[in-house]
Amino acid sequence: MKKTATQASAKKAPMSSLVVKEGEGAWTKAELDEVLDELHTQRDKLVHVLDEAEHDLAGLMRDAGDGAGHDQADMGATSFERDHELTVLNNEREMLAQIDRALGHIHDGSYGICESCGEPIGKMRLMAFPRATLCMTCKQREERR
Fold this sequence. Notes:
By secondary structure, the protein is mostly helical. It contains five helices and no strands. The chain is elongated and about 65 Å long.
């Protein structure tokens, strides 16, 4: 069976097509393996944290009840704790989505391209923060807003 050009390019080592900033060398297998290891490690930890947080939140929701037998301070503390757990859970889910997006970009060869301007993000930034989706200029611009 003959492979199509798309199937053949998908089987190529993705590091050969990953962009780099001017003056940077191409991604080496060791560098890409380091980034992949970091992303997979972070992903495994997040999945575990999310499982625990969802379990804790389910307990908070179940125990919330109608407030009978609880004074206002207890209900306020429970509400605050539930809101905090929801915030943490949403942040963790967003990080997991970022990791999955980075892994997808590595797989399809678009890793390292700024999602805002389309320029290379830079290997040093990606090795320090593998989930990065913006180059430093665009990230700084975003943070100023």
